[in-house]
Each structure stands twice: as structure tokens, then as C-alpha cells.
Amino acid sequence: MNRIYFDHISANPIHPKVKEVLVDFIKSDCFGNPLSQHSVGDEATEALERAREKTARLIGAKPDEIVFTSGGTESNNLAIKGVAFAKAKRGKHIISSSIEHQSVARTLRVLMKMGYQVTAVPVDKDGLVNPKDVEKAIRDDTILITIMHANNEIGTIEPIADIGKIARERKIPFHTDAVVSCGNIPVNVEELGVDLLSMAANQFYGPSGVGALYIKDGTEIVPILDGGTQENGKRAGTQNLIGIVGMGEAAELALIEMDERMKYLNRLKKALIERISTIEDVYINGNPELTIPGLVSFSVAYVEGESMTIMLDEKGIAVSVRSACASGSLRASHVLIAIGRDYATAQGTLIFSFGIENTIEQIDEAFETLKKTIDFLRSMSPLYKKK
Amino acid sequence: MHYSEKVMEHFRNPKNMGKMRNPDGIGVVGNPICGDMTTMTIKVKNNRIEKIKFTTMGCGAAIAVSSIVTEMAKGKTLDDAMKISYESVIEVIGELPTNELHCSKLGTDALQKAIMDYYAKKEGKKPKDKHVEYIGGRRGRCYCPYCSSETSRASPYCSKCGKPI
Questions:
Q1: CB crowding A57-78: b at 16 or more within 10 Å, else e
Q2: Considering all CA atoms of chain A, what is the largest pairwise distance in Å, rounded to the nearest integer?
Q3: Chain A positions in Cβ-Cβ contact with residue B1 (cut-off 8 Å)
Q4: Among A19-28, A234-243, A277-286, A322-331, whose mean pLDDT is lowest?
Q5: pLDDT at A185
Q6: CATH code at A286?
Q7: Which residues on chain B are in Cβ contact (under 8 Å) with A323?
Q8: Is residue A175 part of a domain?
Q9: What is the DSSP string of B83-125?
Q10: Reduced to 3 DSSP states, what percent helix, strand and coil does chain B have, rounded to the nearest 5?
């Protein structure tokens, strides 16, 4: 059975060119510890710093502003806890949004238990934060603003540059979780006006388990992993050199191929939206004009998402689901509720996320299967009445 | 994929699926806002379940269990059908993922409600339970997916088993 993989928001295949570089690197026996005071360590340092330069270039940063981490979750934890702890004496108020990824939302929840206060600004029906709401939420004791660049469930791109201006004016550190956007759409830390930015290599066809946090020079932050002096003293622990080399390569390719990839993925997105719009009572989540290329979230009324995913998987089509059952929770996704979907319809939400190896033919095939799946499940749904 | 082959079989080819005209008893449980809802309709003859049909909106487990319950109930006396429990379903299909325990209780609960509804109608009483708790909107009861006890939506943890929900 030919598999159709439409779940790039969960994981991406490694780019063929990155694979080659990784295999060569592993074979080259560059295994040293960059901290060592000998030539074996120096070789590792060289590979590490080359990757750092390439990663920095992707977001328009200086190499020494890049701290390698184990991925998006760690980057978000380091940014938020690191600044919150460093600034605790000045204040304990943090501003965020109601649609953040769990690695931000749960980090904030932990901080709240430690006495921090969090204001989560709402979003509109497209999932957009209003920068004015952020400005209104600022207090004298606000020590951090953290708002995601692109949402991982509906793909909405937030007005980070506008919020960045406000943060700079008010001299408040500003972090953005750019895991979904980085490497897929242009991301420039100067243009966005951010002090901290999280990224993950796998989102742009690098290996999983490696990411980075951009920390602007002069930003006050304390490490959350204590130990050695690696990563400028901001993240202890011997670096995942193989992963980091893969990340550097993937970052370089992302920059070169970005325009082409965006055009192609936008075509796939448009093609799917055109097709699913023909099914009755199916709602697109988020405004396709304002979302990242290659991601379509939609809610199918009268059916539950997990059952759809399983039927699609039986036919070799891998997609992501946002119903309560599938996530081991009974609540519908907080993002879908935040944009105003009712609870029942939110339970029938699927996310199709495309990658550069997908084709229009795959969309046609998947769409036919999706239509049959919806018909079948609706035929057994107590809520569905044929019109 | 985390379901047993037996569950998948019923999920792919559900038995007795659909809506029945003029049933003798109707049972509806669940709440679509929590992502699961099952209806069972029965025809009774000589105190036995002659015909049974289900409709389910829910995860794979909820659909498969509904189908299995109809198979188990068909032809049984009302007393015997009343005794079909979650445990007896598990005996037939094997264990289900722990967070889908509640979904799998829907089928047996709906059957019991349908039988009660039949008795109530026979005695000329109006059924006590409303057929549908609440459809759509933001209200209604939800149940812990792990231990199946009723939960308050305000709390991030189940008050009975303590699991995050």
C-alpha cells in the first residue's frame, strides 16, 4: 500500500540532502567534545560553529545569539522560565495568548503555581491576537511577553512585528514560539522585533530532537539546565552534535528553497480547500489567507475525529486529529474553542499538513477516501440527518 | 494503531448499524460536546430482543463496542440483555486503551436505557430520562475518559481518579 503522509506538523521526513550530509558526518568520525582542549575537540567545535552560523542565518541573527537545545519544547521552557527567573525581583507578570502550544501553556501554568501571574490575551475567529490587547495587558510588573509566531493547530500567523514594536517601546522582553513558522516562512528576528525565538529542526526537514533558542545579546536569562559552560553558559550539557549538524544543513536548505517551497505548499493547500469545501457542513478553521502554507485544519460536523483518522489510516493516509478522545483528554482543543468553534463540531477536527514530497495526485486520492469516510461515519451518527 | 483486530473488525464492518422506525424502546447516552453519543433502538417480541440497531458518534472504540453489544443482545431475553456489562464486552474484544473506557461503556448503557424505555412505555409511563442530555452548545455533562465518573469542566483534573483531563 502506498502511504500518503499528510502529517508534517507532527513530524517531517529528513531532507535527502540533509541525510547525505549526516551520513558523511557520522562516517567522518567527528565525535569529539567541543569543550575538550585538544584537536579532536577542536574538530567538533568547528562542525558545531558552522552549524550555528547556518542556523543563525536562517533567522537573521548573530551566531553567538543561537543556543542549541533538544527541540521546541526545551527552547520554550528555557525562554520563559529563564527570563521569568532572571527577572523575578522586578516583577512576576507575563503576557501570553489563549492559543499557545502546550510547551508554552503548561510552562506558564507551572509558573502560576510558583506565584507568577499570567494574562492570556484572546484571539478573534481567525485565531489572530490583537496587538492592542497585548498593549492593554501590560502592567508595571510585566517581565515577559510570549506569543507564538504561527499556530500549530490552525496555522494562523500572528502579527509578531506589531507586538514586537510595543514590547520594544515598553522595554519588555519578547519571546515568540516560531517552531511552526521557522524554516517554512521568512523569519527575521530584527523585523519581528523579538528578544527570544524558539525553533525546531524537524519542522524544516532536519532531524527530530534538536532545536535552538535565539537569545538577543543583552537579554537577561538564567539557564534551566545547570552544569557545564556549553552554549555560552546558557544551556549545560554536551551538545547533540550529529543533530545540530543536521539542523545547520536543513536551515541552509530552507533558506535556499523557501520561496519555491512556499509556492508549492500553498498550491497544495488551495487544492485541498477547494475540494473539501464541496462537502456539506465542513468548516475550515482559520483564514487560509493568514495561515502558513501547507496546513489545513477543518472540522467535520456530526462525526468524531479519531474515528476518521483510523479509517484514513486503514487506507494508508496519515493525518492529525484534534478531538478529545485521541488526545487522552475529554476537552476539545483549546485553540478551536478560542476561535469560537462549538464543542461538538470541534470534536470532528482534522489537520492535513503537507510537505515538499506530497503531490496534487495524493490530495485527489486522499480526498476521495476522506469523502467516503465522512459519508460512512455520518451514516452511523445519531446527529446526522440527510438533507 | 492501538486497537485489537477484533475491535477493528467491528469498526470496519459494524453490525446492526442504523435507525429503526417505530422502535419499542430507545436509549440515548453520551453528549456530542464530549465527542461521544450512542443511540440504541430495540424491537421486542415475546420478551426477547428481536431486532436491535445502533447509531454512534464517537471514537473507534465507541463504534466497535456499540456494534458488539448489538450482536450480544440480539435474541436474548430482556433480563439477560440487561446483564450485558462492560466487563462481558471486554471478554469478547479484549482490553481497550485506558482512556477510552468511558466510550466503551456507552454501548451497554444505551442498551440498558432502551430496555428501561421499553418497560416504561409498556406500563404507560413517560420515561424518566430525557433521551438526549444536550446536543450542541457548550453545556452538558462530560465524563472522565479514564474512570468514567462525571467531571466538572472547570477542573483540569478528574476529581475521582486524579488524572489530567
A1: bbbebeeebbbbbbbbbbbbbb
A2: 76
A3: 310, 313
A4: A322-331
A5: 97
A6: 3.90.1150.10
A7: 35, 59
A8: yes
A9: T--HHHHHHHH----GGGHHHHHHHHHHHHHHHHHHHHHHTTP
A10: 40, 20, 40
Whether residue A324 lies within 8 A of chain B, CB to CB, comes out as yes
Show the domain range for A361: 4-11+258-379
Q: Considering only CA atoms, which of A6, A2, A4 is closest in space to residue A352?
A: A6
CATH code: domain of residue B69 = 3.90.1010.10
What is the mean pLDDT of the segment spanning A115-126? 95
User: The domain that contains A105 carries what CATH number?
Assistant: 3.40.640.10
Residues A262 and A345 in one domain: yes
Q: Which three cell numbers stand for residue A313?
A: 489510516
Q: What percent of chain B has pLDDT over 70?
A: 70
Residue B28 near chain A (CB below 8 Å): yes
B124 in A contact zone (CB under 8 Å): no
Q: Is B149 inside a domain boundary?
A: no
Select from A306, A344, A382 the Cβ nearest to the Cβ of B39: A382
- Domain range holding B56? 5-140
Residues A203 and A329 in one domain: no
Q: Assess if residue B72 is contained within a domain.
A: yes
pLDDT band at A285 (very low <50, low <70, confident <90, very high): very high
Catalytic annotation on B144?
A: no
Contact between chains at B17 and A323 (C-beta distance less than 8 A): no
Tell me which of A254, A282, A304 is where a domain ends.
Answer: A254
Q: How many domains does chain A have?
A: 2
Does B100 contact A at CB distance below 8 Å? yes
**Residue A334 above 50 pLDDT?**
yes
What distance in Å separates residue B26's CA from the closest CA in chain A?
Answer: 12
Mean pLDDT of A243-262: 98
Considering only CB atoms, which chain B residues are within 8 Å of A313? 1
